[in-house]
Amino acid sequence: MARFRTWATIALAGALGLSLAGCSSHGGKRAEDARKAAAAQGRAAVDTPRWTFAMITHSGDGDTFWDIVQSGAEQAAVKDNINFLYSHDANAQQQAQLVDAAVDQKVDGIIVTLAKPDAMKAAVARAEKAGIPVVTVNSGSAESKEFGALTHIGQDETIAGEAVGDELNKRGRKKVLCVLHEQGNVGHEQRCSGVKNTFHGTVDNLYVNGTNMPDVQSALEARLQSDKSVDTVVTLGAPYADTAVKARSDAGSRAEVDTFDLNAKVAGELKDGTLGFAVDQQPYLQGYEAVDQLWLYKYNANALGGGRPVLTGPQIITRDQAAALEQYTKRGTR
User: Fold this and answer.
1) What percent of the chain shows pLDDT beyond 90?
2) Distance of CA 198 to the CA centre of its chain
3) Backbone angles phi, psi at 292, to 5 degrees
4) Alpha carbon 29 to its chain's center
5) Which domains does the chain have, with CATH numbers?
6) Across the chain, where does the E strand assignment appear?
7) Does 203 score more than 80 pLDDT?
8) pTM, to two decimals
9) CA torsion, points 263, 136, 36, 41, in degrees to nearest 10?
10) SS3 track for 239-296
């Protein structure tokens, strides 16, 4: 068993190294472009050691939300003279193994998401035992302190859900379908529970396989066809909002579609009235502040939040706000 773990660790470390050296193909290239731009403008990086920080998230492939988080982290890394490594895996066990590989590589700091905290607890504890500071980001605000992280940066998902319930009450909505696209993600459950806490009408949860958009669309379409009393669909991620719009159209429904998270596509659909509102948790800020927090801790033993999560949302974005944010959504930072 020990031999198996040794070889597994070597393999994972190699995979992590490739993905991160290879942050080059996507993130690494963006970071290098940012460094060149900074140099061209006469801005030098800070005069501190060249620390290495690893960010490991629960993102699946092609999720634009995580592109924005990664972009914010990379920009902060350029400013802070950080060698930034990014990897991700939607499978919680695989994500935990990526954290283990980062520990084995003796990185100087780790940023991690806790969408499925039970699966991540041992890996975070191993980082702490190795003396590597950890910042949690996006999901896991309730578990972050218990797991020994410096701080958590993101939105409180229950509070965000409650903000959605309040907004739906203002809009006079009566029956909501809350679409959960990742089973076992505690943050998603908290969002829908938060909606139920404050919404005066009925909230039904619909569980879908978020890795298969045609299945998501057909499941939504079937529900909207069978229950005409549903007047609102709330999706928990920007990529699912457009799918919900298509399902609504095919089902002949007049339900309003609202969503968590913001990107250029969502902003455009807010502007033209296709969507009702979006809940922005500022993913760019989450990535940026996570890197900054680790740098501040390494440089000056600073910690943000005073033992509490540092909130980056929620902010309700409607048609008017979307127009004002268009320049930022187009460049991929909101």
Assistant:
1) 81
2) 24
3) -60, -40
4) 21
5) 2-155+283-303 (3.40.50.2300), 157-280+319-330 (3.40.50.2300)
6) 52-57, 83-88, 109-112, 134-137, 152-154, 175-180, 202-207, 232-235, 256-260, 278-280, 310-311, 315-317
7) yes
8) 0.84
9) 80
10) HHHHHHHHHHHHHCCCCEEEEECCCHHHHHHHHCCCCCCEEECCHHHHHHHHHHHHHH
Q: Under 8 Å CB-to-CB from 11, ≥6 apart: which residues? A: none
Q: Which of 328, 169, 179 is closest to 242 using CA atoms?
A: 179
The predicted model gives 187-202 an average pLDDT of 97
Mean pLDDT of 242-271: 96
Residues 188, 190, 196: CA angle, nearest 5 degrees:
110
In the numeric block, which tokens belong to residue 303? 């910690």
Supply angle C-alpha 11, 13, 17, rounded to 5. Answer: 120
**23 pLDDT higher than 50:** no
Once rounded to an integer, what is the mean pLDDT over residues 115-135?
A: 97
Residue 327 contacts residue 190 (beta carbons within 8 Å): no
Residue-level pLDDT at 2: 39
Nearest to 194 by CA among 113, 267, 89, 281: 281
Chain-centre distance of CA 117, in angstroms?
15
Contact status, residue 127 vs residue 280, Cβ threshold 8 Å:
no
Instruction: Find where tokens 């963006």 sit.
Output: 30
HSE value, Cβ hemisphere, 13 Å, CA-based, for 202: 6
pLDDT at position 64 is: 85
45 falls in which pLDDT band (50, 70, 90)? low
Looking at residue 63, its pLDDT comes to: 84
With CA atoms as reference, report the closest residue to 216 among 261, 263, 180.
180
Torsion 8-9-11-16 (CA) sign: positive
